[in-house]
């Protein structure tokens, strides 16, 4: 069935005549994943399977079951198969932005609409795209990713690139990507990613609380990292909004780049002074020394800005995942889902009696 879907998808894309070479490579990569996948239950029977891989695959099974049965995320055949990749990442993602505006450079895709990034299965291809974009005067950022969701178009597999020394990151990835399969709002990549970050972080905490108990060292580390995410979100959101306004007042000048770099350095200095002492882990240590540009800062806006709005909704529905997801799905047709979420929270806060909910 996935091969048939891939054929239909490729035909539709090529019929449009857009980015033909890119889509052919993407289709070949997806076909190789479909071809190489094996049912996890069968892989676990292999006598020569390493203990490390066996442990990861069992964790993946447990995470999938938890996401579906305990959190109410959409049940599919995703993450019931395994693919051993021959590369450290499943893809390398390129994002870009104008140098004098804090806004995404967007790519148009069939089905999902506009997206602020473009994925490549080859790091070399990603860097070639980066050079082309920089030639056009754009800021760029390239990063490797361990997994992605095909949003129900294909059966997503557990990939070897998803494995790391910290097994809870695998749990987070599966919950995060399953959130995308459950709810994905067209042309709203930032909102979709922040929703998945929140659900992935909170769901991973709950998974380890149920598995290892409230005194689990793993749970404490997850909690600390999630708290650091929230602390950073509280810091970076207002800073990016202020930077966006600053760009709007920036006059044409040969010194514009110097002024821009001063803004970046000031932001990092504020981070070191105001935020770094509050951090419980080392998750954001590198931020103060990173080479910032608009594309990299927009990565933080995509994933980290205004996470508290999701936390507020979760609290308002008494930490009930079913009610939370029902409420989130009411935002599907909103032109600006982030603003609609804030309005929804205000509405629910105004309900003085009875359990708060958004319908069935």
Keywords:
single chain, mainly alpha, 8 strands
Short description:
Helix content is about 55%, strand content about 10%. It is mainly α and about 350 residues long. Among the domains are: about 1-35; about 220-305, no CATH class; about 310-350, no CATH class.
Annotate the secondary structure layout:
Blueprint: H1 2-16, H2 20-36, E1 38-39, H3 40-43, H4 51-69, E2 81-83, E3 91-98, E4 107-109, E5 113-115, E6 118-120, H5 123-135, E7 138-145, E8 158-159, H6 167-182, H7 189-212, H8 217-249, H9 256-275, H10 294-304, H11 308-316, H12 321-329, H13 337-349
Parallel strand pairs: 2-8
Antiparallel strand pairs: 1-2, 3-6, 3-7, 4-5
Helix pairs in contact: 1-2, 4-6, 6-7, 7-8, 7-10, 8-9, 8-10, 11-13
Structure in words:
- There is one protein chain.
- Helix content is 56%, strand content 9%.
- Among the domains are: 1-36; 218-304, no CATH class; 308-349, no CATH class.
- The model is unreliable at 3-17 (pLDDT under 50).
- It has a three-stranded mixed β-sheet. It has a three-stranded antiparallel β-sheet with strand order 6-3-7, with helices on both faces.
- The protein starts with a helix and ends in an 11-residue tail after the last helix.
- The longest helix has 33 residues, at 217-249.
- It has 13 helices and eight strands.
- Strand 4 and strand 5 (113-115) form a beta hairpin.
- The protein is globular and about 65 Å long.
- With 360 residues, the protein is mainly alpha-helical.
